[in-house]
Amino acid sequence: MTQHWSAPSAPGPVHSTVPVPGSKSITNRALVLAALAEGPSAVHAPLRSRDTALMAKALTSLGVGITDRADGGWDVTPGALRGPADVDCGLAGTVMRFLPPAAALAEGEIRFDGDPHARVRPMSTVLEALRGLGAEVEGDALPFTLRGTGSLAGGEVTIDASGSSQFVSGLLLSAARYDKGVTVRHAGKPVPSLPHIDMTVQTLRSVGVAVETDGTSTWHVEPGPIAARTWHVEPDLSNATVFLAAAAVTGGEVTIPGWPAETTQPGDAVRGILTRMGCSVELSERGLTVRGPAKLSGVDIDLRDESELTPTVVALAALAEGRTVIRGVAHIRGHETDRIAALVNEVNALGGNASETEDGLVVEPAPLHGGVWKAYADHRMATAGAIIGLVVPGVAVDDIGSTTKTIPDFPGMWTTMLTGAR
Length: 422
Fold this sequence. Notes:
Mean pLDDT: 96
Number of domains: 2
CATH topology of the largest domain: UDP-n-acetylglucosamine1-carboxyvinyl-transferase, Chain
Strand content: 15-25%
CATH superfamily of the largest domain: Enolpyruvate transferase domain
Radius of gyration: 21 Å
Largest sheet: 4 strands, mixed
């Protein structure tokens, strides 16, 4: 049984500088590529969370050397991938979708499983694609078993990636090690979260892998070596948005140091979103600073490319003046939980007025009251409840521990941030 966490109310506008740990998306991509590289790599300032720990443990079980650095990073030494091994995916989409294509290069049997809800997350697209590329896979969802021979033919596959960009990224990350490389063609509704695939392409090119793409529906990776390199991981911008939201809802000011001037992280889109909702947003040498308005405004917005921000935007919308319409996020029904249904349920449970649409949700202004906010074992649901709790007394999040998926100590960071409230 999890213990309810009383979301602290802000005594006034929040004024704080909040250093944010490294990007989960970049960290796990770096770990996979370092594991498949020609020589040792170093990963500086990685995210240390449940998702990245699961990735590191999985790669270690396959024969990769991963050791702690004194500066908090990792040294990664590639090894001959081998089984037998058992991979715990937890609830991490990056582990369950990025690791099987790499494990297909191993010799022996690799068994994959994860948390109970992970067993219902979509996996068949990746597994069927691996079969088409020459892998032997038993099962179409967690748990499944992969039996490798030490190499994979590769080639061309056509998939429907409208459920997740991770289907494409997972296939691309290991493709250079396949005999023929890989060409991935998408057929279906538009792929969501395309910036995450752009991130994958950029990281591949940074280690010398040749990638050609039209940017939306076709990606080709040439076979060849993966170079070792030193990785410097950016702050996780999606996690940072939660702390910026604290400034937005309290009329305060929060700065995130180290915000990159250029990035492929979808979380960078928060700058435009918060501006549209009435905030002042400034990027400088100090980092990204957000100053909240006297009252937030509702927005009509398509979040297809940055859908992971949906819980944060819904929390802001529930506290804003005017109607908010969020579009293009039907695929988040297949995330850690059905985020659309969960957000509507929890906003309404606190007296709000939210409703589902075919590809998103609508939030109308309504006075909120305290109560239990359910996290559904979903880290972004939990942090959305914390945002609302800043200005609505009596909100309790039922599973704040779920935030360890991507933020090692969210309650501690939240409390430290609030010491600057006045």
